[in-house]
Amino acid sequence: MSRPRIVIVGAGFAGYRTAQTLSRLARGRADITLLNPTDYFLYLPLLPQVAAGILEPRRVTVSLSGTLPHVKLVLGESDRIDLDARQVHYTGPEGEAGTLDYNRLVLAAGSVNKLLPIPGVAEHAHGFRGLPEALYLRDHVTRQVELATASDDPKRCAARCTFVVVGAGYTGTEVAAHGQLFTDAQVDRHPMRTGMRPRWLLLDIADRVLPELDERLSRTADTVLRERGVDVRMGTSVKEATHDGVLLTDGEFVDTHTLVWCVGVRPDPLAESLGLPLERGRLLVDPHLRVPGRPEVFACGDAAAVPDLEKPGSYTPMTAQHAWRQGKVCAHNIAASFGDGRRRAYRHKDMGFVVDLGGVKAAANPLGVNLSGVAAGAVTRGYHLAAMPGNRVRVAADWFLDAVLPRQAVQLGLVRSWSVPLDTASPELARVPAGGRPAVTPPPGQPAPGPDVAPGPVRRTDRPTEGDS
Ligand SMILES: Cc1cc2nc3c(=O)[nH]c(=O)nc-3n(C[C@H](O)[C@H](O)[C@H](O)COP(=O)(O)OP(=O)(O)OC[C@H]3O[C@@H](n4cnc5c(N)ncnc54)[C@H](O)[C@@H]3O)c2cc1C
């Protein structure tokens, strides 16, 4: 047989670990190709720190070609997979089409923002799933505080200084916790901002923050958020979003120009497009991460419904920890399918969870030991440094600088509201005009994209949305 060709779609936690482990196991005896729209692995758990200006964006990325030298990186997004012909079709960053043949396929395309049919949300909210969204939020929040400072109208000033986060899972909780610190720092010690009090609201229909985690973590996070001044409203969500604010399910209308949508994620639509059995949009696999009836196809991470052997009848949750460990098992099982080693089922032990709440605070339960305050903060940061596959020194350096210097509150304005719509299948990429011509009509007051804007892979039709406010 000629050299085995293994194609991995997606270079997130699951895909990166599969490629890394396979590369070690194969020792040059197989062609391993990684298809991903970006040339980096994104360490998503630190994204709230990018939005809060603690970490510069490149810190949370790890170069794929720099850290996986024996893996061929193909830049692009798969738009169709022909399972019978064993071919992955993709579109590259400059619009070019390509095809990859495989003997083994790993689907690790992750997840995208989850939408709910609530009027106005698709138009006025922004998700928090990718680097462009984090950069947009950092700039947008900074701009709101600056515009509020210049406003003579107290009502408009209050609206600009009100930030609504929907979804109190780990993402929304971290965004609100860091956000309050970030905006407080912007108004503190600024004579023209005396009396301004930025207000962050955290909403969820659940009855507690971090509803999916241990109750003790919830209590810690709840206490920190409230002490910090975050308006935590459980059992409450958004009924309607408008240009001027949001109508809550309890009937209150909140004037705001910021709605951050952290209600969760859904599997990448690529999973659904395959016509294979699904479980809530995730590709059903067996405990060996194989797609039933397709022995050459494996799936792992958020895009796969992996049976949870510790909790029979359920599937492993969408977390980085599972995706990372599944990637390793997936690589071993692919090697075993070529006769190298024995295949194994995916089993896991609960190692606990860490939630960074900004400053020196966190909520963590490593190995079941509940921690709060500074101890949790230290464990959380140590955990992230250990878990990142690269760039650790730069991250640690940014943390050090943030501890000793005031945070930089400047907005570069490089990512505009219309380029990070909530309804997108590619949160990792900011929208750009297709073919050099603006497919998007920027909203009033925003400059039209210039002709020198590079074309990029735009999988869905661009739609204009309400502009930055
Ligand atoms: C802000 C945030 C904070 C989080 N914090 C934590 C945390 O603290 N702890 C934790 O355990 N989990 C956390 N998570 C969840 C965790 O990040 C995910 O569960 C994890 O990333 C899933 O890994 P994955 O490999 O399945 O998907 P991803 O890491 O999302 O990677 C998917 C990759 O596939 C690529 N891709 C998508 N579609 C295509 C396509 N059509 N063709 C080619 N490539 C494609 C994407 O660009 C991406 O690179 C967080 C998530 C977010 C958004």
Describe the structure.
With 469 residues, this protein is α/β, with parallel strands linked by helices. It has 3 domains: 142 residues, 3-Layer(bba) Sandwich (FAD/NAD(P)-binding domain), CATH 3.50.50; 196 residues, FAD/NAD(P)-binding domain, CATH 3.50.50.100; 31 residues, no CATH class. It has 12 helices and 27 strands. The strands form 8 sheets. A 6-stranded mixed sheet has the order 5-2-1-9-23-22, covered by helices on one side. A hairpin with a 3-residue loop joins strand 15 and strand 16. The C terminus is likely disordered. The structure holds flavin-adenine dinucleotide.
CATH fold name of the largest domain = FAD/NAD(P)-binding domain
Helical residue percent band: 25-40%
**Main sheet properties:** 6 strands, mixed
Question: How are strands sequenced across the largest beta sheet?
Answer: 5-2-1-9-23-22
What fraction of the residues are assigned to beta strands by DSSP? 15-25%
The unreliable regions are 435-443, 445-469
Work out the helix count.
12
Distance between the termini: 60 Å
CATH class category name of the largest domain:
Alpha Beta
Basic shape:
globular
Radius of gyration over all CA atoms, rounded: 22 Å
Ligand names: flavin-adenine dinucleotide
| Number of structural units classed as domains | 3
The computed structural class is: alpha/beta
Return the average pLDDT rounded to an integer. Answer: 91
Q: Would you report the number of β strands? A: 27
Gross CATH architecture of the largest domain: 3-Layer(bba) Sandwich
